[in-house]
Amino acid sequence: MESASARRVFAAAREAGVFVMDALWTGFTPTNLALRERIARG
What we know:
Blueprint lengths: L2 H14 L13 H12 L1
């Protein structure tokens, strides 16, 4: 997505009062989940 499109998306979200997020959320990838588990275990 080019910056002009991103600005339109964020402006529309702001106007609608909703949260917008990139479709790729790395927080749920297996590597990050494993890392979170290891951190939680200490």
